[in-house]
């Protein structure tokens, strides 16, 4: 009898751990250390050696698991992003508003703002940090997209709506405010971001175009035809 083919194990991302045990304690210590470092040091001054000294974890262990300071920071960002709850209110608008308020609350913390600023700054000069940042945000967008998938099931938005684009539209005003104009994030911004994302979604501006049709042109034409009455 032919034996079934052996399956190669899927490699875990750097910093991935089993719940509990020494591995989890090591990760917690290193992530806490980088957060403390960012409270007192510029990102460029943070080193593996500093993290090893502050966390009590050997530098070789940190390099083996995360490869670089950027890897540790992105792991911390991924961990913290999961603390922002994903609402399920039964209404797309209420879900978007609640999510926007949760994002605003996250960025109310100076530590969290500094974390975002540091990794974005690093991504401009370090290709690896850029890739890690894109992966971290991409993973989070896919997780939060369940809000839109539920709305599609309820018939609140067209079935060919692109969930990731709506979540991106909801989040973008926060990062523009945080990183570009450098102004405080407040409740007004949260409501405005939710209203804009909801209006665009229900108007069909984030529908996935048919093959060969440009996304923007198709979405605008669809939205126009849906809202123009007799045309």
TrEMBL record:
Residue intervals of the HTH tetR-type domain: 24-84
UniProt cross-references to PROSITE patterns, sorted A to Z: HTH_TETR_2
Species per Swiss-Prot/TrEMBL record: Streptomyces axinellae
InterPro entries assigned: Homeodomain-like_sf, HTH-type_TetR-like_transc_reg, HTH_TetR, Tet_transcr_reg_TetR-rel_C_sf, TetR_C
Name under which the protein is recorded: TetR/AcrR family transcriptional regulator
Annotated stretches, region: Disordered: 1-24, 204-231
Residues in the DNA-binding region annotation: 47-66
Record carries keyword Transcription regulation: yes
Biased amino acid composition, Polar residues: 222-231
A Pfam entry, by short name: TetR_C_11
